Amino acid sequence: METVDLLLHPVRVRIVHAMSGGRTRTTSDLCASLPDVPKTTLYRHVGLLAGAGVLEVVDEQRVHGAVERRYRLRRERATIDADAAASMSLEDHRQGFTAALAALHAEFNAYLDRDHADPTADSVGYLQVPLWLNQDELADLIQELRSVLTSRMNNAPAADRSLHMLSPILFPMEERPQQD
Length: 180
What we know:
The protein has seven helices and three strands. The protein is α+β, with helices and mostly antiparallel strands. The mean pLDDT is 91. The chain has a three-stranded antiparallel sheet. It has a domain at 3-113: Orthogonal Bundle (Arc Repressor Mutant, subunit A).
C-alpha cells in the first residue's frame, strides 16, 4: 500500500496521533485510548501500519498464552513528504482532507464524551479566520507557524503535559484576481 493511501484513513490517522511523543503502546493500550473504534478494526489497522513500517515492534511478551507486542511510531514513515503531496491528485487531496476531518471529528467527540470534559477550562477552540494575504505574506505566515509548531513537536509525554490536538487548515477561499 502506498504511503498516501496508508496514511489517509481516519482510523490510521488517529492511531498515529495516539502513538505520538515517542510512546510505546500495545494494541490493548490503543483500544483503551480509542474506545469508539471496534477492536477488530483497530487490530487490522495496527497490522497495516506495522506491515508498512510506520509502527515498529519494540518488545514482545507472552500474556495469557498470546504474544503481546509493544509498538513505537516511526515518525519519518508517518508523514507524506512534499514530493508525495505534489504528486497527489485532486481526488487524493479530497480524500486526505476528508480523512483528516473525520479523524478530527472523532477525536473531538471522544473528548466531549469524557466524564469531566470542560471545553472552557481546557481552552478548546475552533476559530476560523479568513486572512487576506499576498504570496509573500502567505509564505511568511506558513514559515512562522511551522517554526512555532516544530519547536514543540518533539515534546515527549511528561507528568505535567497532556496531549492536545492542533489542526491548522489552510486553503484559498477564492481564486486570485488575474494580473493584466
